[in-house]
Design a protein that fits this description.
Rossmann fold, seven-stranded mixed β-sheet, methyltransferase, five-stranded mixed β-sheet, 12 strands, 263 residues
């Protein structure tokens, strides 16, 4: 079993109670502005000028805030009330709509120009039926010609980096030990995470267990086609290059085609 230092897990769709309020401290090394710039570039090269964007699994709202700064109208959706409480406090004074919904069962008031689901939130859907439900909802709420962008932890990352390894990070405010187990038959990775968080003169201990499912791109492509969307591009992380055998994060770009009605 290897022991390494590794940034805390990304894309946590559901974080529980008090843990939501330390989430941003654990995500200190994520450049949300860079993510926003990258997504905006995807819009540009695909000729899309979205006005209204939905962010599935928005967490504490950092991406929504960065996109709001750029002038986009944002809807943030997350299943954790505490994450959304943090998001609302941070975005006070900004016109961002936050909805407390499961992203596999979300409901909007109308259609949107683009939908994103970032930081491996798709991997947190451990049942294929939930991914199918999400894709169908995306198809339903996405305007014709609109884009759906999501990223996944790659199979390589699950099999070669996360599998049965222990990672840690030590700082004065927060220390964590993160132990993984990857079941290759079930394609499920279990993250057992213990946090020690400084609060006043003492440290409080938090224990978390999270699960992610490993998805192959071809497997997702079948679901995307089944849902009525079209897979437009697959990119290596934060680039516009094709994924490599050792790519750790893969971005998928889908389009809802324009449907013509003949009279």
């Amino acid at each position: 079993m290897a022991i390494s230092r590794w940034p805390v897990c990304r894309g946590v769709e559901s974080i529980y109670r008090d843990f939501a309020y330390i989430y941003d401290k654990l995500m200190y090394d994520v450049d949300y502005k860079e993510w926003a710039d990258y997504i905006e570039k995807i819009f540009e090269i695909n000729g899309l000028k979205p006005s209204l964007i939905a962010d599935l699994g928005c967490g504490t709202g950092n991406f929504c805030i960065e996109m709001d700064k750029k002038g986009y109208e944002m809807i943030g959706i997350d299943s954790s009330p505490d994450m959304l409480d943090c998001a609302k406090k941070k975005s006070y004074g900004r016109d961002i709509l936050f909805l407390n919904q499961d992203m596999a069962n979300f409901e909007l008031y109308g259609t949107v120009d683009a939908i994103v689901c970032l930081m491996d939130s798709i991997n947190y859907l451990t049942y294929i039926k939930d991914v199918k439900k999400l894709m169908k909802l995306v198809k339903n709420y996405l305007n014709p010609g609109g884009l759906f962008i999501f990223d996944i932890n790659s199979p390589y990352k699950f099999k070669k980096i996360l599998k049965d390894n222990v990672f840690y990070d030590i700082s004065d405010e927060i220390t964590y030990v993160w132990q993984n187990h990857f079941d290759s038959k079930r394609k499920i990775c279990e993250f057992d995470i213990t946090f020690f968080v400084k609060e006043g003169q003492h440290y409080n201990k938090y224990d978390e267990v999270h699960y992610e499912r490993c998805y192959e791109v071809d497997e997702l492509k079948k679901i995307i086609t089944w849902s009525g969307l079209t897979l437009v591009s697959v990119y290596d992380s934060m680039t516009f290059n094709r994924p490599l055998p050792k790519s750790e994060r893969i971005f998928c770009l889908q389009e809802r085609g324009i449907e013509y009605v003949l009279f």
